[in-house]
Amino acid sequence: MRSNHLRTPRLVRAERAFVAMHSSFKPNAQIHEISPAIPMGSFTSYARTIFAARNGARANKNAILFTMCLGVFVAQLDSSVVNLAVKHIGSDLDPRVNALQWVVDSYNLVYASLLLTGGALGDLYGRTRIFICGIALIVIGSVICALAPNVGILIAGRVATGIGAALELPTSLAIVTVTYADAKERGRAIGIWASCNGLAIAVGPTIGGLLVDVAGWRSIFVMAVPVTALALLLAIKAVPESKNPEGRRLDPVGQALAIAALAALSFVMIEGPHWGWTSPVIVALAVVCAVTFALFLRIEAGRKGALVPLDVFGNAAFSAALAIAGLMTFGMYAMLFVVPLYLQSTGGLSAFATGLVLLPMSVVFMIVSQYSGSLANRMGARMIMSAGMGLMGIGLLFLTLIGRVPNIWLIEVALLVVGVGLGLNTGPVNSVAVANVTASRSGTASGLLNTTRMVGATLGIAVLGSVFAVHTSEGTAESMVSGLHVALFGGAIAELVGAALALAFIRTDSMEHRPSQARE
Residues 28, 5: one domain? Predict the structure, then answer.
């Protein structure tokens, strides 16, 4: 491990840039420009030979990379399998849709709120230490979820898991970055790390569905325990400590206000239809949301070391990229919440069969995302991002055509269109965000983008899930289909608005870094 005084300013900037550049949902286009196409089987073979290297230093690096890959894999797996289990959780603990929304959204809420702070904690107090804390919280949260006697305890376990993911994901990428000094090696290592997101997205629904059908919904949380326990043991034994506190500071006031605003908004959106929009609790929380958000903006404005440096939003392309990222996950995560419920409740499919229905979309997304960076370089970010968001909107509109009896062919075509659009957009949107700020703020830009993705996911499930819940309150198959159509139409509108934003504000050359146009 290098000592701090041997690192050049360029290396320090590079490390900072990678700290927040993690993927909460998908691989990053810039990563694949360094390491173009990594076969999914490479991770498995890599794991088999990880400790077989003849050179001790190489074996240690491989052990560190394997540990970080386990961390990102289990965090993404946790978020991708729960949607397959919500129907069974509802049957066992609480059938209300709003309760099931909290099972999914509690994880998303704390993850989105703490994402930026997780990277700062690693830089200040030690990346390995914070990674270990995050992994330990995922173990504890998974055990709580597996043993939960009621939905309240289950949600508490999901909160613990979300906090753990927010701590370990940004620090895992930072650890990989400082472990590999050689740029070529680092590019390959980051490519393998990023591919674990795609691997979890691909295998998560299928494995999760099979486990739910064979061993019950609690088994999906039990599954995470040995994997995270292994990552915890390896982190303690094999991963050296590193940190870089220079220029980093915590923003506890901004962090508290961000959590309060997002939590209040989520509660209003999820519980408003059930408590009544004019009930004192809902009105009071709406006021809390507005006040805390206003205070957040006032405190963060011009503050050195702010959680969110507001001046970066002066760049139109950067602001548009963040809005597009939020709209993308707003519709996508809502779809991933309501469609499995429909397929299992109205369509009568098992959890495993539902996972198989979703599998082609995941595979197409992984394939297309491998080439999205090169396509955007050749055809321009504006065209690729507009096409990606447009295809996602069209795919969701196709899904509004499904009826009481699921038309699997129609559903698969629609999901494939969504998968292509998602694959086209995810890489370029990150590249545009990073390219439109100064190099010293590239890490902040990527961190803000990924935070926006998770905020979009949280609000998508909260808002469109509540629309779905209002219609399904009648308890009939027809009402569920009606609610499904309205929710999916809302998601489609969000995606198409994102396509319009890309056309209006993203330039063809928006992926080219222009320091003179980026605000410091």
Answer: yes
Residue 519, classed as helix, strand or coil, is coil
What's the Cα-to-Cα distance from 312 to each of 24, 239, 257, 274, 511, rounded to whole Å?
Answer: 22, 35, 20, 39, 16
Same domain, residue pair 84 and 220: yes
pLDDT at 405: 87
Maximal C-alpha separation, the chain: 68
What are the backbone angles phi and psi of residue 38, rounded to the nearest 5°? -105, 110
DSSP class of residue 204? Answer: H
Q: Examine the domain organization and report whether 298 and 423 are in the same domain.
A: no
d(CA 480, CA 483): 5
Q: 187: number of CA atoms within 13 Å, CB side?
A: 11
The rounded distance, in Å, linking the Cα atoms of 416 and 423 is 10
Is residue 86 within 8 Å of residue 100, measured between CB atoms?
Answer: yes
Number of H helices, E strands in the chain: 17, 0
Same domain for 95 and 221?
yes
What string of DSSP letters covers 206-224? HHHHHHHHHH-TTHHHHHH
Shared domain check, 85 and 121? yes
315 and 374 co-located in one domain: yes
Half-sphere exposure of 231 (CA within 13 A, CB side): 32
pLDDT tens column, 415-463: 999 999 998 988 788 778 877 877 666 667 767 888 888 889 888 988 8
Is there a contact between 21 and 434 (Cβ–Cβ < 8 Å)? yes
